[in-house]
Design brief:
three-stranded antiparallel sheet
Length: about 290
């Protein structure tokens, strides 16, 4: 079984809720963005859905989720208008479903908790949303979100909500969980990010994608300049590292020109690439402890 422990922000997608180690089902975006998606989704219970989401209470979510799922599944995808509506509803559903549920009545880490699902776990299961008990976290964890970020990206990239999903996947290193694709998730960010910026250079998420792409390229260079250890052979990253460094510099410059004086961390990383032979010595989208 493959396992990985990332040293990067990959473990928390979008700098908000969600753990990339469990895959895209659990990642969540900024609550204000999620609420706007639900408003644009024009559900019949739109106000109640937004209220339930903003409350953060699973008890409120389960009361509105059944009708929301039915309405979402009944949404036609037959025109640009309905495509946009379906995408907003998909994004809203993804954000609405709780990533975890508490294991009420059991001490933390009690190995027997899985034997007795809580009433909330049962109610969600009746709606087709299943959770499994994860002992180390002492909580019930979502198995799979009914709305798949991968499909939202694949089928609705021309909508804002498809692009928002793209950013979320980018910030997870495009991993389906625990770096199962391999240690070098920065390559996945590059593979997806470059075509995206060619097609959408000025979208609502392009600057954020640009920054993450810069971090990915910088990681390539930083690894190539690092000291070898039990998990990393820097010489294996030498080919293309110089070009990656130059591309990172360009991307940081583009990002900072659009956000002057607002991102000190990006400026520090840019200066480190320019002035320090080892770069910034930061590793994003990289899972050094990875083995079969």
């Amino acid at each position: 079984m493959k396992r990985a422990f990332s040293v990067v922000a990959m473990l928390v997608a979008c700098s908000h809720l969600g753990w990339a180690i469990y895959g895209p089902s659990l990642t969540r975006t900024d609550p204000t963005i999620a609420a706007r998606a639900c408003r644009e989704a024009r559900f019949e219970q739109g106000a109640a859905i937004v209220k339930a989401m903003q409350s953060g209470q699973a008890e409120e979510v389960v009361l509105v989720l059944s009708d929301a799922l039915k309405e979402w599944n009944a949404t036609p995808v037959t025109s640009e208008q309905f495509d946009a509506l379906y995408a907003a509803r998909s994004f809203c559903i993804h954000e609405l479903v709780p990533a975890t549920l508490p294991a009420a009545g059991f001490p933390d880490g009690d190995p027997q908790a899985w034997r007795q699902p809580t009433s909330l776990v049962v109610k969600f299961k009746e709606l087709g949303v299943e959770y499994f008990y994860y002992g180390p976290d002492a909580q019930w964890t979502l198995k799979r979100n009914p709305s798949d970020l991968n499909l939202l990206v694949k089928n609705f990239i021309d909508s804002e909500w498809g692009r928002r999903a793209f950013l979320m996947m980018t910030e997870m290193g495009w991993s389906q969980g625990a770096c199962q694709e391999g240690p070098d998730q920065f390559r996945e960010v590059i593979k997806h990010g470059e075509p995206f910026l060619k097609h959408y250079p000025d979208s609502e998420v392009s600057d954020h994608v640009r920054l993450e792409l810069a971090n990915a390229y910088a990681t390539w260079w930083n690894i190539a300049q690092s000291e070898p250890d039990a998990y990393t052979a820097p010489e294996a990253y030498a080919v293309g590292a110089q070009e990656a460094k130059q591309r990172a510099i360009v991307l940081y410059q583009e990002y900072l020109s659009a956000h002057p004086g607002k991102d000190e961390e990006a400026r520090k990383r840019l200066n480190a690439l320019r002035e320090n032979p080892k770069g910034s010595e930061k590793f994003d989208y990289y899972c050094p402890d990875y083995e079969d």
